[in-house]
C-alpha cells in the first residue's frame, strides 16, 4: 500500500517530480565531470562538457517527466531561462558575500532562490503550454 501512495503522489506532484529530477540531473552532470577527469581530461573541459550535457539531459527529463512537454523546440527558452538563473544566482551570492558570508555559505544560501526561480521559469516560460481554443470553449460551456 505505501508504494501505491508514493507512486500516486509522484504522479500528482509536479514540484516533487521537479526536485527528484533535479537530484538525478545533478548526479548525471557530476558523473560526466568525474568520468572525464578520470579519463585525464582537464577540469575546465570536463566542467564545460558536464554543463552542456547536463543542460541537455535536464531539458529532456524536466520537459518529459516533470512538465509532460517534450517539445525540442523549447531548448532555446530553456537555455535563456538558465542564463537568467545564473545571473540571479551570482547577484545573490555577491550580496551574501557583501554582508559577510564566505563564498561557500553564500552559494548554499542562494540555492533555494535559484531552485524556486528555476521551477517558476520552467513551468511558466519554458514548458508552459497555453490552453487550446477548443479547451477554452469547452470550459466556457461548462460554466
List keywords for this structure.
143 residues, 6 helices, mainly alpha
Describe this structure in words.
- The protein is mainly alpha-helical.
- The chain has two domains: 1-68, no CATH class; 71-129.
- It has helices spanning 2-12, 14-38, 43-66, 75-98, 103-126, 133-142.
- The protein is globular and about 50 Å long.
Largest sheet: none
Number of domains: 2
Give helix and strand order, one letter per element, not per position: HHHHHH
Strand portion, in percent? under 5%
SSE class: mainly alpha
The parts where pLDDT drops under 50 for at least 5 residues are: none
Distance between the termini: 38 Å
Helix share bin: over 70%
Task: Specify Rg, calculated over alpha carbons.
Answer: 19 Å
> Can you count the beta strands?
0
| Averaged pLDDT | 87
Summed up, the helix count is 6
Tell the overall outline: globular
Q: What's the arrangement of secondary structure elements?
A:
Layout: H1 2-12, H2 14-38, H3 43-66, H4 75-98, H5 103-126, H6 133-142
Quickly describe the structure:
This protein has 143 residues and is an all-alpha fold. 83% of the residues lie in helices and 0% in strands.
Amino acid at each position: 500500500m505505501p508504494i501505491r501512495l508514493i507512486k500516486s503522489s509522484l504522479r500528482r506532484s509536479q514540484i516533487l517530480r521537479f526536485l527528484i529530477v533535479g537530484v538525478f540531473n545533478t548526479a548525471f552532470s557530476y558523473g560526466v565531470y568525474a568520468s572525464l577527469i578520470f579519463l585525464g581530461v582537464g577540469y575546465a573541459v570536463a566542467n564545460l562538457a558536464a554543463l552542456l550535457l547536463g543542460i541537455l539531459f535536464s531539458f529532456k527529463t524536466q520537459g518529459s517527466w516533470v512538465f509532460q512537454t517534450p517539445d525540442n523546440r523549447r531548448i532555446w527558452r530553456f537555455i535563456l531561462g538558465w542564463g537568467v538563473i545564473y545571473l540571479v544566482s551570482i547577484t545573490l551570492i555577491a550580496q551574501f558575500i557583501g554582508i559577510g558570508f564566505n563564498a561557500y555559505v553564500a552559494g548554499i544560501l542562494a540555492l533555494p532562490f535559484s531552485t524556486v526561480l528555476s521551477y517558476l521559469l520552467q513551468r511558466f516560460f519554458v514548458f508552459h503550454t497555453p490552453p487550446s481554443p477548443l479547451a477554452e470553449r469547452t470550459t466556457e460551456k461548462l460554466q
